[in-house]
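Quick one, T. Sequence first:
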Amino acid sequence: MEENTAQDKIIQLQEELDKTRSELCVLYEISNAMRTSLKLDDVLYIILTGVTAHAGLGFNRAMLFLINEKASLIEGKMGIGPHTGEEANLIWKQIEAEKNTLDDLIENYKASDKMADSQFNHLVTSLKFPLDERNGGVVALSILENMPIHISREIIPQYVSDHLLQKIHMEEFAIVPLKTKDKVIGTIVVDNIFNKKPITKDDMRILTMFANQAGLAIENSQLYEQTVLQAQTDSLTKLWNHGYFQYCLQEEVKEAKQNDSCVSLILLDMDNFKELNDALGHQAGDQVLKDLAQIIKDYCRKLDYPCRYGGEEFAVILPQANKKEAYLIAERIRQAIEKYHFYNKETGEKKISVSIGVATLPENSINDKTTLLSFADKALYEAKQGGKNKTCLSNG
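Structure tokens:
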């Protein structure tokens, strides 16, 4: 009898050892995958794929929230998983047929250059919660208290008024904080809404271990993106700098030619800037440039690239904008600047004007970046020579 008991214990220990080894292998594979990219979207996708993939932690759905410290908000950044039971069944059949590994799923994502446009992801990325326990609910509680939370089927009725549950139907779920070396930066939320598999203590343990690694990977990615952004941004105006302008213009011209579409370029130069600098001083001149940059940014479309071209000259790259659309945007910017009252504490309010040149590819025989830039520059010169404070279109 004692021999059987000892044998049972050995078998149990072996099973626990095998399970632990399997968990460590999964964590190791996901950790290696997270090192393959420093782009934040890539890292978030790899993390959530690791949480939901059959070769990973295997939850039905996963959501990732990050803290926006400036706005004191918790924002949904990405969600992976089916939106309906029918969609879940289709995905599981596809997984069974294709036998994709975790590496396969990640490579497929990188090859497509973006995550599949899913309803669930749209829903998650629309969510924002205040970073306080009273108004932010259980997601905020997990972050503020730095603790994992398991809301089981038994206690979920107590949370029916929670902000997260009001937006996303769940019958049981778990939240784990994403930690860096010295703070919490967000959370991962998971559930098994479709296969109804209970979330166990072991699930919570491995999910928490994984979240600790994920938090560090996200922090590294954010630091990298901040560094890249600083390298591409003009320090005074916070617009894209000249180097990034040249890169973006080249890429947008290439894309326009490949897709048989158009791209327009606005060149904008401040009128009489030297006189203003001489009269008010460089500090006042810098403030005018910053105000000017903000107006340009405010009157651009979301897909445009407002840039500081150099000195008092600015540029805006307008993807998919024809000459008429580009002219309307340029005039909107010019008129907003003309109406704006730039304030200086010594001289009071000051009115400023700008001259603008516009060129469009493929119009006027423009078929490359150099010609597009040259024609926009000629149109700007024409605006200057024609009396300033006006927008001129390139005529070739």
